[in-house]
Amino acid sequence: MTTSSLFLLLADGRFPAGAHAHSGGLEAAVAAGRVTDLATLEAFLAGRLATAGLVGAAFAAAAHRAVTSGSAVRGSTLALLDAELDARTAAPALRTVSRRQGRALLRAGRAIWPEASFDDLPATPGGAHQPLVLGLLCAAAGLSRAETATVAVHGTVTGAASAAVRLLGLDPYRVQALLVGLAGRCDGTAAAAARAADDPPERLPAAAAPLADIHAEAHATWEVRLFAS
User: Fold this and answer.
1) Quick check: 142 and 3 in contact, CB under 8 A?
2) I need a surface site. Which of 19, 73, 86, 94 has the fewest CB within 10 A?
3) pLDDT computed for residue 17 by the predictor
């Protein structure tokens, strides 16, 4: 496969990493009456880009940098990145989700690129956070740091947008048009994340969304739900 094809493969929501089972917090936002139509969905997605999108993409790009820079301390760098991302994820439910998605992504990565340096990931309980695993997968696929950030940002909005069609019965064509309208903002977020990856782990973006944290904790208590998060 060419690098362009691999880029599309990793950005595809059908990649077998379990992303389709998660709404990115949208299910709880819909239940709370905060997302009801295309306009409020757009605001929700813009908020995710500015917070979870920027942070996740910066950490994915930083993980990519750690394993492609030739550093002899990449294992300790990845461990520090994992700890810093854990500190930025205030809600225990979201920490659990991130590590669960990381395990699923790592399983796919080991099957596709068995020669890659996944053993450099920290042996933390529950597995490494998803953005770190994504950074290593993108490096194994030969993608650049900027492409890695773009894949991460893309997943931040497309998963929630797809969930909106199921949760709200929105017109899928209009939802796709909304995503096209957000493309420039996605590119800008990815570029900012790729630049931030040059900073030490403790200086990476720490944008927070307290209401999303509250929604995640409430969602985790539901006995019946359509999405895992």
Assistant:
1) yes
2) 73
3) 78
